[in-house]
Amino acid sequence: MLIAIFCILAALPVRAQSPQVEGFASILEAPAANGRPGAAPLDFRGPARGHMTKPWWTTGHGGRLKWKTAPAPAKRETVFAFIGASSVPPAELSRAPGARLYVNGVSAVEFETGQTRDRVWRNGDFELRYEARRSEWPYSASQRQFYLNGDSGIYRLRVPASAVTAGQPAILEVELLPFPQWPNGWFMVKERTDALAESPQSLAEQVRQLQRDVTRLGELTEVLAANQYNSMLESREMRHSIIYTDGWKHLHPADLIRLKNGDLLVTAREATEHIARDGDVIMLRSRDEGKTWGEKQVIGAIPNLDEREGCGIQLRDGTILVAVYYNGLYREDGEYEWEWAKKVRFGQGRQHLGTYIITSRDNGHTWSKPDFISAAGMPFTDMEGPADAPIEMPDGSVLMPVMGYNVRGDIHNEAAVILRSTDQGKSWSYLSTMAEDPGGKLGHFQEPAIVRTRSGRIVAAIRNQGPAQAIWTTWSDDDGRTWQPVRQSPMTGHPADLTQLAGGRLLCTYGLRSGVHSDPGGIRASFSDDNGETWKIDGEVRIRKDFLNMDIGYPESMQLADGRVLTVYYFNLFGRYFLGQTIWKP
Known about the structure:
Strand content: 35-45%
CATH architecture of the largest domain: 6 Propeller
Number of helices: 3
CATH topology of the largest domain: Neuraminidase
Largest sheet: 7 strands, mixed
Radius of gyration: 28 Å
Number of strands: 39
Distance between the termini: 82 Å
Oligomer: single chain
Shape: elongated
CATH class of the largest domain: Mainly Beta
């Protein structure tokens, strides 16, 4: 029986081994020339430049990605091998965007991106075989929208002899097919001309990347274990919980407002992505000191305007004032405008980066129409913020910390400034500068936070992008008119939030981002016993220490009636965004 089988197999025709040719030699056309500038995305061999079907910041299926292979040795069936990567689809989707591959301008085969296992697609005599070599983690190291480390592997394209010219390269093209469920997918061909190499160097590259991935897996395991046994490991009581999430929607920052009736309000921005023109400011309400939160309410939703954050305060007369920072740097087609020289004013009396005010006189159930703040007459052309709540002064005026761009005509000077309103936010004037950075030599001063202490001093904590990534501080003893020289604090992270506790201590909470400030990242807090002049970094509290994604933070804190502190923040876990909170003892 076995002899008969062997005889039959021996009589079958044997398919000659097709020659293997490098499938990437040079790029011909790419909507995104080199991926994200300054960043080499990872594949299974480590970092390498890539060319994408579309720029990383745009939506839609993009254009065609076209490149040239190495020459085919003969006019016969040939296999072209190249290294490619594709975006990781959202967990909510059962499949990823499809793509079409062309050979010399002719549609050859359609395939699916976002694959984590070996796959084969065929169309007539064409065959595309994908050998999965690396699956991207279910979390990422940056904003989900900007992440370029996709699932990667080797693509082997079998081309029939009829489509091969001896001594000539093939022209390969890939375009993503329309995929309305998720407009942010992409395909990338890596700039590697040695996909077929099995050299000591290529093997060493794979081993090094595998070591990095195993180390990252160990960090994830450690973080999950620490969370599981948190009550045994912590010296302070930390109660973590989720305030809100909405499927695949992007969420950030969380801001708090306490009302005179005892309600707590948390505001945040909700949108399809970090950069998206559909950003709206939402609000949730708690009537039990943060134990539970009600349904979301949209309070800032101007069509085709990206509202980025809403920070507010309830004034002494009961009016709730919320300042909404918006970004109008979008073209008419909805795509983001990244080139500063091409930025166009959003409209008469408004900046393309600016702020508007909305108010409520019924505890946040209904809201006024927006009043836009004009920068006319101020020493800067555009503003960003606030990133922290305004404060009401004893005379009824309101002070608001924002960031000023293009200060006195210096495009590199980003300053932390104070605006003042004497009519409950209807109009604003420039009051003072807390910190500025002519020429951008200090790392810019951004996203300031302020608190008025019981002594009348106004203390400020300011984000800085210098090498130390430290929080800088200053204070004013004359109602914000003049400020002490800004100085670097021992606190690392950004941005900061300031509040004064019942006992008089100042509390500063801030976010530390993975890969930027610490690994893993988290939320921390420090205290000052001398009205903000010094900060006790030795007593720093680690509120959260389990964030493996850098897209987290922007905490805000408030002391509850029982003396505990409620800290709210946002975080990205497995590509999904959450508003979270921790209730803890200071």
